[in-house]
Write a structure and sequence with these properties.
Strand content: 15-25%
Number of helices: 6
CATH topology of the domain at 44-116: wza like fold
CATH architecture of the domain at 44-116: 2-Layer Sandwich
Order of helices and strands: HEEEEHEEHEEHHEH
Shape: elongated
Number of strands: 9
Distance between the termini: 15 Å
CATH class of the domain at 44-116: Alpha Beta
Helix content: 25-40%
Length: 227
C-alpha cells in the first residue's frame, strides 16, 4: 500500500518538476541574436537634417532641422512641402539615403541622420504607463527613468508580452547593468508589464523546483532505507 501510494506521489512530483523545468527553460527563450531594425507603421523617426556637409572634415555648416516624425498607417512620414515619403520596412541607412535625395534640390550638401524609434507599451504599476517611442539602443535603465519608475520597485515581477505571448526577460539584471533594449531582444510593438497583483515569478518557480527536488531525494532515500 505504501509503495503504491509512494509511486503515485513520486510520479506526481516528477511530472510537476518536468513541467516547471520546461516552463523555466521556455520562458528564457526570448531571441537576442543580432537583427536588423526596420521601421513599421506606428513607429517614429528622429531626423536631424544638416546642410553644407564637408566629408573631408566630417563637419556640417548648419543644422537645418531637428524633428520627430510619426510613421502613419500606410508607412509614410509627412515632410511639409515635400509631401509624404514611404519609409516602412526600411532601416535607418536606407531612410537616410532616400531623404537626402529628396532634400538635394533644396539644401546644399544635405546629410540626414536617422534614429528609428520603436513603439513600446508599458502597462501596470509604472508611474507613467502608456505608449512610448524609444531608441532600441537606449538602456532599460533609461526607459525606467523616462516613465518615472515603478510604484512598487520590484523588477523581478516584470515580464514581456509579444503578440499575446508572455515571455520572461531578466529585467532586474538589465536595469543594474545598463543593458540596451536591443540587447534584451525587445522589438517594436512589444509590451512590458509590471503586474499590480502578486504573480508566479521565476524566483518562486525555482523555489518550488528546489522543494520538489528535496521531496524526490527524501523519497528515494526512504525507499533505500526500507530495503
Amino acid at each position: 500500500m505504501f509503495c503504491l501510494a509512494g509511486r503515485r506521489f513520486f510520479s506526481f512530483v516528477l511530472l510537476f518538476l518536468l513541467f516547471a523545468g520546461a516552463s523555466v527553460l521556455s520562458a528564457q527563450t526570448l531571441p537576442t541574436l543580432k537583427r536588423e531594425v526596420r521601421v513599421k507603421p506606428g513607429d517614429a523617426l528622429q531626423l536631424r537634417i544638416y546642410s553644407g556637409y564637408i566629408p573631408s572634415d566630417h563637419k556640417f555648416i548648419a543644422l537645418f532641422q531637428d524633428s520627430t516624425k510619426i510613421i502613419d498607417g500606410d508607412g509614410n512620414i509627412e515632410l511639409a512641402s515635400l509631401g509624404k515619403v514611404h519609409v516602412a520596412e526600411m532601416n535607418g541607412r536606407e531612410i537616410s539615403e532616400v531623404l537626402e535625395s529628396k532634400f538635394k534640390p533644396f539644401i546644399e550638401s544635405p546629410k540626414v541622420m536617422v534614429t528609428p524609434l520603436a513603439r513600446l507599451t508599458l502597462r501596470g504599476i509604472f508611474v507613467r504607463p502608456g505608449l512610448y517611442r524609444v531608441d532600441l539602443n537606449s538602456s532599460f535603465w533609461e526607459l525606467i527613468k523616462q516613465c518615472g519608475g515603478l510604484q512598487s520597485f520590484d523588477l523581478s515581477s516584470l515580464y514581456l508580452q509579444r503578440r499575446g505571448e508572455s515571455m520572461y526577460v531578466d529585467f532586474e539584471t538589465a536595469y543594474y547593468e545598463g543593458t540596451s533594449l536591443y540587447e534584451l531582444g525587445i522589438e517594436s510593438g512589444d509590451t512590458v508589464v509590471a503586474p499590480r497583483i502578486n504573480r508566479l515569478t521565476m524566483q518562486t518557480v525555482m523555489r518550488y523546483f528546489s522543494f520538489g527536488i528535496s521531496l524526490v531525494t527524501f523519497y528515494v532515500t526512504l525507499l533505500n532505507y526500507r530495503k
